[in-house]
TrEMBL record:
This is Putative NAD-dependent epimerase/dehydratase family protein. The lineage of its organism: Bacteria, Pseudomonadati, Pseudomonadota, Alphaproteobacteria, Sphingomonadales. Gene3D superfamilies: NAD(P)-binding Rossmann-like Domain (3.40.50.720), P-loop containing nucleotide triphosphate hydrolases (3.40.50.300). Signal peptide: none annotated. Coiled coil: none annotated. Residues 56-135 form the D-glutamate N-acetyltransferase-like N-terminal domain. It holds the Pfam family DUF1611. Residues 141-334 form the D-glutamate N-acetyltransferase-like C-terminal domain. SUPFAM superfamilies: P-loop containing nucleoside triphosphate hydrolases. InterPro entries: DgcN-like (IPR011669), DgcN-like_C (IPR035086), DgcN-like_N (IPR035402), P-loop_NTPase (IPR027417).
């Protein structure tokens, strides 16, 4: 699922296994990158490292030298704090990691090379500083050419409600059924999980669809690319990246991701969350421009706020109402199996 790809313009293949750096983080929500890597790429994580953090992934606490001895090749900044900053309190720890023999991987907005002591140590030691949110320089304008192979894209009624987790779960389910499939990452955590990908939120708008074409090149007739969605076609701020990704990925199947109970669009006051039906209609109408045969395979719920009985009852009711399978990919079970089979039908 996490095989790197070698098409023109793809992101740097990341140094794995990882040591997860938590800095001095005290808020679990700010450590979502570390938790995502633990949950979806645990076999690539040897431990965690901190300089005062009270948050923990539950992995062994290791010094950089201990992590290298266990096979680690990269230190991943597992924090996504407000503004994407790297505070001065972290810098000694980052230099220590470089001195121990680790490259550094960051999804922050601040560039590693812009931190003098980190840049100087990396240059002296011959270590890599890898910023995930830097798109490649040679992304072409999209051609719209229909490519071989099969594609699935996760889309959402809003931002940050499970598109990555859904794509990862579906890709793994495909592989468990003996189907040749790759997860194609489009955001910082997904790229770190997969070991490669395309940071779609950092691509210039004119090249969004072209970046999606590069991300998912021609494939074997029965091969599936399961593509991580971004934003929402109904979001007043982030619809542009969603549309470029939709046109460029040319999905044969899409899955709508939704969080029951969420009413307000994330980060945009005064806008309500789109309905599932609205996103199905929008995605179908706009997706037909580059793939006339696009269809909805079902709906993925983030039901983490509900108990098991409440979630099961709601998903069954919504499945009956929509005439589509509805499942929570984290909970799994027969409902998720039905969603996967619908996508493959």
């Amino acid at each position: 699922m996490n095989a790197p790809f070698a098409a023109r313009g793809t992101a740097t293949v990341l140094p794995q296994p990882y040591l997860l750096f938590l800095g001095d983080t005290t808020e679990p929500g700010f450590a979502k990158t570390a938790f995502g890597l633990r949950d979806w790429a645990g076999e690539k994580c040897v431990g965690e490292y901190a300089c005062g953090a009270t948050v923990s992934t539950g992995l062994p606490r290791l010094t950089p030298a201990e992590a290298v001895a266990k096979g680690a090749r990269g230190l991943v900044i597992g924090v996504a704090n407000p503004g994407g900053v790297i505070p001065p309190s972290w810098r000694t720890s980052l230099v220590e990691a470089l001195e121990a023999g680790l490259d550094i991987v960051s999804g922050m907005h601040v560039r590693l090379a812009d931190i003098p002591e980190v840049a100087e140590a990396a240059a002296l030691l011959g270590r890599q500083l890898i910023d995930i949110r830097v798109p490649p320089a040679d992304i072409p304008v999209a051609t719209g050419r229909k490519r071989s192979g099969k594609r699935l894209l996760t889309v959402g009624t809003d931002c940050a409600l499970g598109k990555k987790y859904t794509a990862l779960a579906i890709a793994r389910a495909f592989e468990a059924r003996g189907i040749d499939a790759d997860f194609r990452a489009t955001g910082q955590t997904g790229i770190m999980i997969a070991g490669g990908g395309m940071p779609m939120d950092a691509v210039i708008s004119d090249f969004e669809a072209g970046a999606a074409e590069v991300l998912s090149p021609d494939g074997a007739p029965e091969h599936w690319d399961v593509i991580e969605g971004q934003g929402s076609l109904a979001h007043p701020a982030y619809a542009a990246v969603s549309l470029g990704l939709l046109h460029g990925s040319q999905p044969d199947v899409f899955v709508v991701c939704h969080e029951p109970g969420r009413t307000a669009m994330l980060g945009t006051a005064g806008y309500t969350v789109a309905t599932i039906e609205e996103i199905i209609d929008l995605t179908t109408a706009l997706g037909r421009r580059t793939n006339p045969n696009i269809r909805c395979g079902g709906v993925s719920f983030n039901s983490s706020a509900l108990d098991e009985a409440e979630a099961a009852a709601l998903m069954e009711a919504e499945s009956n109402r929509l005439g589509l399978p509805v499942a929570d990919p984290v909970r799994g079970g027969p409902a998720f199996d039905a969603l996967v089979e619908s996508c493959l039908a």
